Fold this protein.
Amino acid sequence: MSSPIVLLALVGVLYTAGVYLLLERSLTRVLLGVLVLGNATNVLVIVAGGPTGAAPLVGRAPEETMSDALVQALVLTAIVITLGVSAFLLALIHRAWTLDREDDLTEDAEDRSVRRRLARGEQEDEEELDTTGCETVGDTDPEDTETGPDPVRAAAGATGEDAP
Amino acid sequence: MNPGSSLLATLIPLPALLPLLGAGLTLVLSRRPMLQRAVSVAVLSVVVVIAALLLVAAVESGPVVVTVGSWPVPLGITLVVDPLSALMLLTSMTVTLAVLVYAIGQGVYDRDEDTPITIFHPTYLVLAAGVANAFLSGDLFNLYVGFEVLLMASYVLLTLGGSRSRVRAGIIYVVVNVVSSLVFLVGIALVYAAVGTLNLAQISTRMEQVPPGTALAIHLVLLTAFGIKAAVFPLSAWLPDSYPTAAAPVTAVFAGLLTKVGVYSIIRTETLLFPDSEVTRTVLLVAAGLTMLVGALGAIAQADIKRILSFTLVSHIGYMIFGIALATPLGVAGAVFYVVHHITVQATLFCVVGLIEGVGGSTSVTRLGGLAKASPLLAVLWFIPAVNLGGIPPLSGFIGKLALVQAGVVDGSALAWTLVVVSVLTSLLTLYAVTKVWVLAFWRPADQIPVSEEPDQDEDEEADEGDEDVPDGRERTTGGLPGAPTPRSGVLTQVRPGTARTIARAEANSGAEVDWPVARLAPADSTPALSGRFLGAAGDTVSSRLPRVMTAATAALVVLGLSLTVAAGPLYAVADQASDDLVARTPYIQAVFAQAVDDRVAR
């Protein structure tokens, strides 16, 4: 019995590629990364089943020479699950595309506000938070939070916050 | 095997099976909303009853095991009900049922019978099935399948309506969870390569022969996978990002259940598969402390109530991990009790936020005020679970924290003492976060709400979309905040009346998005029915404007949380027994292998 070095190498290469793709900003590449990682994992599960052998059908081969049927069943399940998830992810990406005509993941409104807050100092804190809660206008239009703070409102927000 | 236990054994698969069948049925009934609702409620009620029976059986006579399809034990899939899984099942299904009623109430109240949200009920039931399957599974791969079932359903629920913010959050959520599932699958592959089985009981006996280094590697891989799902600190960033965007009932059930399934898996693997692991003990303790602190600090920094609660959710996962990491009967019992408490209280709070959104028109504390005056009932509904979460003495949150602190003190190591300090500090910080909401949103007079500027042009467009029939005079009475400055409505209430907070459309998060098919499918004349009756109903007092069914469901959850306090004695006895069984390991393993003997005898 030889250790399945080729398959293990393949798993390594696929993981490398998959992680690289997953870290991209483009959503399509993220999807590809998910697919590659899924396949890498499937191969790994197959390798975990031990050495290859005859098809696991009773009567075709002596039982000792059969390969492990369980891992194949597991991988089949995993493939189906990955397929379903990929289809859903693809649908989400398509939806994101129809909304924004952009393949990149739009930035979190919260992240944006944190960055702007850092750049501007702490003064406009409360106003920023005010527009970036989850039911805000912030994600209706990415630009509208860029309009800058209204000093009166910011000040009022700050006083309100200081109440406790 | 006596007839009673075999009858029980036939009950075991039902919590997973019934919701799946119900999901199919509700999908068929998608044109009959009333029947659909009746089926969902009936199915989940039956599951709650079954879970209660299973809990009684498991507490009285030890773990109950069934082998699916009567395959002999190491080969077939086993479902195991021990006190831990039965307790988790009962708690989670009760909360699921209450939140379902809440969701139905929201649907009825917003009059969205005409909008096609037929997918909600089937998906919700699939989610319940996945959760039940995960809790009952006695097999690592079946646990994976349970996770995938519930995650798949959660993907759909999170992105209901497909608004911009939800799609964005949904993509992150899906990718993170897919990756965590893949890590879990890697863990399964490693376990199988090392011990040649996936049956949890069999793994636990065979894992002792595995070299410590290999075992540690496998352990850490599994821990990483579950850590992502449970949102333990370095792996928790996805949660506050994605949960707040969903509809209120969806967030409630997610917050209650999904992370807890991860916590449950951690409890199971830590106690059953890898007891006495010094390395992971340290890792888990440090992670628990950081989870508590970072979560609590995050909660303080937020202004949106949903985000505050999401961060406290992360923060309090730390308590459970603390108890698990101690790995003493005392610690695990504390963790088990805390899970039960936290499922209930967190779901309750998110339900209350849904009500706040309805009365106040916002979930941001910078825009809310005077709620206590506007709706005293709502104030009570918020106050009780909030102080419960903060750990004010008579309530169950205090009991859980006390138990964990006690376990930490008994443990006595330096790290455990640090964790005790951190957990007390976190409790205070949580209290600060929820009190901030209380002071700003409930106690602050409405006329002190910061006045907002003119509405953006963007919102004018949205307002034009469906607001023609809402005169300004009515606008002014909206929000349930008498005395609130009118310009306040410039930002929010002009958006809201036109965009009903239905589950399907649920555009509250994004402003109106009219290009979505759901919106187009809504009948053209439906604007009055869909326009926020929450906000628009004239004449009544605000408290009577609280939708009855939603309020009743929330109140039921609050009462459930209180009953955890009243029944803390018996409940803690169950938690103790569960944790004794877990730490001893033998009851679980013996029960599974006894089943194997039974099967052989039967043959």
Summary: The radius of gyration of chain A is 26 Å. Chain A has a mean pLDDT of 72. Chain A has six helices and no strands. Chain A touches chain B through 61 residues (CB under 8 Å).
